[in-house]
Amino acid sequence: EYEPVCGSDGISYSNLCRLKREACLKNKHITVQYQGLCNGCESKKCEFHASCVSDDSGEAVCVCNSNCSTVVGEQVCGTDGQTYRSECELKMTACQNKMSIQTQYRGDCESCAGVVCQYKATCMGGHCVCPRDCSAAPLEQVCGSNLVTYESQCELQKRGCELNDPSLDVLFYGSCERRSHRPIIGAPITTPLTTYLERDEVCR
Fold first, then answer.
1. What is the DSSP letter of 43?
2. Are residues 126 and 102 in the same domain?
3. 3-class DSSP state for residue 134?
């Protein structure tokens, strides 16, 4: 089935299955950048929250968002100490002024002053809250240091925050049941990696 996707390695694949097989064979982390053939945006680095688009001539260019009027969001405090009506407005301001501004926390800048959050929680409206929505996080299973498989690194972080457990971390990418995995640098390797012949069988 021909449904081309552009991989994070800058290579076009005929479909998602081909991309996953290539990632498995090479033991590399390759994700889908976008649907369709690669158009140059995969190698174009945009700064200040700009987005890459392909213009009429097929050239990859970085553009700033110019309208946040339809975005419904909550106030955020920027790393520049300014309060913005939404994260969209923060990114638009940073892009238009070519300034490096990130979201420091949710809510008015005054509300979280002096509040220190732990366990990957973030301050919102003066209170520390754990990550709640992982729907936008990349779906790649990870094996936690508690030997439990999580559907994404975000889900692991959310669980660690709920348990107030700062020691819960990623042991390696992939299911805890799999023998073939991509180890985290510095993390202990608890099982041997498969040989190339074994990996070829796994990736079929």
1. G
2. no
3. coil
Task: Write out the residue range of the structural domain in which residue 14 sits.
Answer: 5-35
- Phi and psi dihedrals of 43, rounded to 5? -110, 5
Helix (H) / strand (E) element for 188: namely none
* Closest listed residue to residue 51, CA positions, set 105, 6, 94: 94
Domain count, the chain: 3
Tell me how far apart the alpha carbons of residues 145 and 152 are, in angstroms, rounded to a whole number: 14
The tens digit of pLDDT for each residue in 163-183 reads: 988 889 999 999 998 754 455
CATH of the domain at 61: 3.30.60.30
Q: Which residues contact 89 (CB under 8 A, 6 or more apart)?
A: 68, 71
Full-model pTM: 0.50
Q: Which pLDDT band, with edges at 50, 70 and 90, does 200 fall under?
A: low
Q: Where are the alpha helices (DSSP H) in 27-79?
A: none
